[in-house]
Amino acid sequence: xxxxxxxxxxxxxxxxxxxxxxxxxxxxxxxxxxxxxxxxxxxxxxxxxxxxxxxxxxxxxxxxxxxxxxxxxxxxxxxxxxxxxxxxxxxxxxxxxxxxxxxxxxxxxxxxxxxxxxxxxxxxxxxxxxxxxxxxxxxxxxxxxxxxxxxxxxxxxxxxxxxxxxxxxxxxxxxxxxxxxxxxxxxxxxxxxxxxxxxxxxxxxxxxxxxxxxxxxxxxxxxxxxxxxxxxxxxxxxxxxxxxxxxxxxxxxxxxxxxxxxxxxxxxxxxxxxxxxxxxxxxxxxxxxxxxxxxxxxxxxxxxxxxxxxxxxxxxxxxxxxxxxxxxxxxxxxxxxxxxxxxxxxxxxxxxxxxxxxxxxxxxxxxxxxxxxxxxxxxxxxxxxxxxxxxxxxxxxxxxxxxxxxxxxxxxxxxxxxxxxxxxxxxxxxxxxxxxxxxxxxxxxxxxxxxxxxxxxxxxxxxxxxxxxxxxxxxxxxxxxxxxxxxxxxxxxxxxxxxxxxxxxxxxx
Amino acid sequence: xxxxxxxxxxxxxxxxxxxxxxxxxxxxxxxxxxxxxxxxxxxxxxxxxxxxxxxxxxxxxxxxxxxxxxxxxxxxxxxxxxxxxxxxxxxxxxxxxxxxxxxxxxxxxxxxxxxxxxxxxxxxxxxxxxxxxxxxxxxxxxxxxxxxxxxxxxxxxxxxxxxxxxxxxxxxxxxxxxxxxxxxxxxxxxxxxxxxxxxxxxxxxxxxxxxxxxxxxxxxxxxxxxxxxxxxxxxxxxxxxxxxxxxxxxxxxxxxxxxxxxxxxxxxxxxxxxxxxxxxxxxxxxxxxxxxxxxxxxxxxxxxxxxxxxxxxxxxxxxxxxxxxxxxxxxxxxxxxxxxxxxxxxxxxxxxxxxxxxxxxxxxxxxxxxxxxxxxxxxxxxxxxxxxxxxxxxxxxxxxxxxxxxxxxxxxxxxxxxxxxxxxxxxxxxxxxxxxxxxxxxxxxxxxxxxxxxxxxxxxxxxxxxxxxxxxxxxxxxxxxxxxxxxxxxxxxxxxxxxxxxxxxxxxx
Lengths: 509, 509
Hints:
homodimer, alpha/beta, GMP Synthetase, Chain A, domain 3, Rossmann fold
């Protein structure tokens, strides 16, 4: 299969059905296909050859959708730029991948001169914004209007479809090479598990589309049928209004977004009954948040997808049924049909159920490798198994419990402490809105368990009270030795708490 | 992916869940896996090497299920024998494929001496029946009890998983070579379209398991999870009783079986409310039969799957929603997500919508080829497109209407007549229970449109009346010039009307 196959199928079966809705703009499948073929023709005219990388730096829109289809249609390779990155990081990823064509919207157009200065080989900039194209940039709409439609290059199977730079929360950015088969294996395995979609699906894109979490949903609906609705970015009120206005059936949120959505005042004024499915990922969800979400959205089922960019991205699924069992809410779910999942020790020996080791995953969805990093690829993929770098254990029923990033593990007084265990204990306290736990240097213990906490509005609690509270649930050596109260935790564009940043700044103190 | 992957997943996630029910025998996933590993060990001990063919000639049972898993587990290749074939035909298929190991049940054990005489290289016969093994045959249960479990050979992807001899309704038997990827592409694409299953699925096997229609359902539930219930063969009362007793949720029937099921006296005495999904295939369903079925089974949705062995087997699907539109009941549905479907002329040029040509299908589910028949493979698969040999057209919404086997087309007085058009007209008459239409030699017209009709009980109608009735719906030259009344139509094991046999005998008259 190949990424544009679903567009061909939509043209054959539902040419007049609305495929994209973006603000006041709606386009049918036939219209999208015509624009995609023309944009692909324009890219070929601009010199894009089979396998060339074409980047996009933009908020969500229908043009992002067209880009995702037109680049493979032209034979090119996607490079979805992380919108939270600095110009230096973006220039690095463009240079590393040898990307010479960049699509950019109004929000990020001002960054282009800096990018060009840092990376002079960036020859072609295409402006996808609403206003006139800035100097030195081509107009997206003019290109589409002027170009002849290209025939679909029909690259597929094991051909490279995209280089996806990992979020930068760990180590130096790496380009994850994914094939058409990679993305579609994850899509079909996930959909076949019970999250099937079709012409009636109405998917809202509010999480950033550059991230594999939202891209997985995009791939599913593009492959199986349905309508895409785009918001430039997440806002609680915008999301609620879009669900109500467009009778949205499905969306992908990260837990932080779920919390903001359900906590906004006036939520009950919106008709959200069309929303039958929320998929969440990128991190686990605290039990109290999920319980409030299930109460606020009684018509909605919740599914957790666990994975990573290198897994295209889904490895395990926590089903709607699983969400009825409170003790499973800490789990990331069980192996999806397309994935083999096991827990291994440092020698790659499978561990007994219940023992913590590294989560390893095998299947047709494991990335082709890291862009021009054969050694890092060989270190990550051994005997076909992608080593996730996540520590976890598996219970007797195959549920995977992610304990922590292996490198986030805190060693204090010779004892291993997994941050998630401490965070789960802290999160139970009614005064704690959100929290994260890291290791910081300590003269006595080597590392000290350090908690960074956001309190709920008007709540008051001391560090000693929280420490004592945690000891009700976890061993004394695991409870935080220091607690810091902040107004907000730093999060990545994908909603992940930036532990590395916290760790760096706290260690420097 | 590979065929036994779902068994490994079941052992990891639901080891204690019942996987098979056969008469009074129930086995959990862990028990099945243990038996499969031992049977695979026994097959290896008997000399089965990677890629060797192992056949089964048996009615449906849990042992058929174990065979389907143990042969690929051992590295071997499946050869599912058509139970309706003569000994000569079976010996041909064993010899053609070089199969030296045969599993046989009590029903077919008596055929073994004849098979051995016709094909002396049949060295190993394994008896899967309930009684003692006949002389010269090994006991299936003794083999499992005595063998050490083998490790899964984990052949998968493009490796050959089975040689499936086509039904013999057209031409000489050919072995269709299917890979693991072939079967699983069809499975995941079909499941992702909305027929998702999982641990709660309870699938009843009543159609013969050697046929790809039932095997496709088997592959889906084995890959995605669920419980298999086996009846040796279809009977209307047995099927109704099994649905009620085992709270069956899904089954695969051919239209003939649907008709027999709903027409049996006392159907209302069974609680069939658990049956949420019936998939039917192998032939279209007359509208009156479907309407009666929908009335008799109000809790059941109906899905038609169209395809063929060479397509592993699904190409198009007529969804439950589609069944609400009467004019779509004549359609075979639309391309499944994994399949490209088009209508081509003899030069392989795609035809405009509405024009009749050959139905061609492309995708990862297209067979590897015919066993040792490179010329027939090259004739059938051109530029990746499997040419089905079925004539059909596609409407503006992508629905495929199968008009006839291309070679079944009748040419009468220089006009092309597609049998299905005539059959559809005849089937509307209230006195017609079932019918088929063939061309027979005629001194005036070259071929004559000839109808073979089964009347409903106590109905009386003349040939002239039927001919006049048809002319209400179709052109005069398409209406049958001769009509023959019979008690029953000859059907294959898969429920297809044996037109070739009718044509041969009628032409000889």
